[in-house]
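User: Second chain of the day. Same drill as before.
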Amino acid sequence: MIPWEKIDRAKIPGHEGYVTLRKRGTEFSIRTAGTELMNSRVHGSEDALADLTYSRIKQKSDLRILIGGLGMGFTLAAALEQSKPDTRIIVSELIPAVVRWNREYLGHLAEMPLDDSRVSVAEEDVVKTIGRKKSVWDAILLDVDNGPEGLTRKTNNRLYSRSGLETSFFALCPEGILAVWSSGANETFTRRLTQCGFQTETITVRAHTSKKGSRHTIWLAKKP
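Assistant: Same format as last time:
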């Protein structure tokens, strides 16, 4: 078996931990503290996060989309596939190294989505991006950490807290969609979305594009 090669390591802002980029043949992996956060072979649920969101967005001109968490670029690429020429997508990524890795090592995996003129990158906590304006986003897609329970940064919990969800609610346009990826189900989080005024669907999707393997959870929360 081909051994893993460490490509780079970067500190997580606001956290004592690090993320590591590794490669084995044509396969890439990003890990933290011994836990794999993402793998280039397994991105079916990341694709689904964008596909399911776009299927529920009210189609209009000049869509404004916010993606929280760049990862390996698969969600961004899936969003671009369904976006019109006048759509604008901002990707908010906390870890500058992840943006650099996408440009230097990972971009070819998702056909270089950061090179698309419709895309802008904000190297900051997505909480700040969301809180900056009200009624501006047609959709907010969150693939931050492992879902509602913070793994890499406990401060990610504020994104999924009641106050954080209320901020997302006000940042969305009417009929806008908040889509949240998670490694597993969380009934408490489902109830919290409803308590914040969202009309919520919970969908289980396969992690792998072959429709095999583990299952992940996606919440689609609509602002009435």
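The CA atoms of residues 39 and 46 lie 11 Å apart.

User: Great, on to the next one.
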